[in-house]
Amino acid sequence: MTKCVKCGSELREGSVFCTYCGAKAGSMPEAGKAGVQTEEAVACKDGLEGLFSGIRAYVKNETDKQQKELAEKEARIHTLEQERKEQEALIARLREELKNRADKDTDAPAPVKNECPKCGNALSEDMVFCNQCGTKVR
Fold first, then answer.
1. Nearest 5°: phi and psi at 136?
2. What is the model's pTM?
């Protein structure tokens, strides 16, 4: 007598279905009498292992890609943060320099408008060149 592949019950001669679980006789790969798997069962198992192996490789590849992208983004963020800190330091230094210049401008006397920037000679409004040193004044 043969046994049901699904539940292991003995099947009567000529039975198409198992009387205990309703499984169709011969619809699933049968285990051999000595416990040896059929070629179909081995091929099915190998196919599933290959499929799962392919899925694992795909998932690992995608995970590696995402980790690489994440590392690149983190490096870019770090670079941008460093640039921002440098810009903030530059802004602070320029503000300090402007403040110092403003302080110097308030301390220095106002320049006389009608004198030569090179020699200090008094100039009249109509002069284009200084009459003492020849410097162009307009």
1. -70, 125
2. 0.40
